[in-house]
Every structure is written in C-alpha cells, then in structure tokens.
Description:
The chain is mostly helical. The chain has helices at residues 3-13, 23-40, 45-65, 84-104, 112-131, 143-163, 165-168, 171-194.
Amino acid sequence: MTPETVQLAAESGMRCCATFWGLDIAFELFLAGLAGGLMILPRAAQTRRWAFAALALAGLVLFLHLGQKSAALWFYASFQPQAPMWWGAWLFALALAALVVWDRRPALNWLRVPVALLGAGLVIYPGIMLGSLAARPAWHPVWTPVSFTILSLGSAAALLVLLDPRLRLRPAWSTSATLVLLITLATRAAILLSGQG
Length: 197
C-alpha cells in the first residue's frame, strides 16, 4: 500500500458526519497528549498508570470514531513510514506496551528513556499529523505542533499537581491545574473545529 492509500483508508473509515473530526477526536488528542506528557514527566508508578489509562481511553475513543473498524489494521499490516497516521498507530501501540512492561517491572530503570521518547512522540505527533492533511489548510501553521506540545506538557504537569495530595489541598494550585486541563481541552477542540471549513 502507498502512504496515500493508508491515509485514504483511515479517512474513509471515519464516520461520515457534518464535520471532518469533531469533539470526540479533540478529546482523543487531549488524552493522547496528556499521556505523552505524563510519560515525559513520570514521578511514580501512579503516574505511569494514569498515562496508560489516558492512552488506552484515547485509543478507545479513536477506535469508536472509525466507521470501518478494520481500517485501523492497515497501519499494522504495512510499512508506510511516509504516512503520519502510520507513525501515530505505532506510537500508540509501542507506548502502551512500554507502560505495561515498566509497570510490571518497575526495577527496569533503563525504560525511562524509551518511555520518555515515546511520550515525546505522542506529544509532537498530533500537530504534525494535522499539518499533513492538505485538505485542511487551517491546521498547517507552524504554531499548531508547537501549541500541541506546550499544552500537552502543561496538562501533564497540571494533572501531577492534582495527583499530589500536598498540592491538591491548596485551592489556588488545584484551581489553576483544573483550568490548565480545561483550557488544553478547549484549545484542542478550537483547533480542530477551525479546520472544518
């Protein structure tokens, strides 16, 4: 399969609707970015489990969005490094596997580096993928991948604040962290919806 065929298979598998991608995909991108940020900033086993939960939920949301579920298998049945969605599919799978292995074998400290690299890929990938869709010029500006990266790291840091019992009890910290998470989700939705026309 050519990269164009893989891309077409993925896009044709998307549920037909009034918009290209809606709020469900904004939520998926938010969760994937959050997971990636947590993988870059792991502090404890609890953090890794939150990263796994966020990434697994993101994958479920994306899978439910597909109209033709079998279209997702094409990414794993072919070698298409020119297709950004191919990279995204493998990033998801490898990140989930790495988080499971590290959770079961926490003594494997060398896993910090590959987990952080996979997390960086998850943080950077959405902006690159959106920018590669020629039919959506509003997603092409250079600030799209930059904003996705900054907001993903910010949302991960905000969640770490909410998970820390010492900081969670401070109203200013917990309110600020919650606002960061909500702003990140709203920004994802705004970027996606801005490219629908």
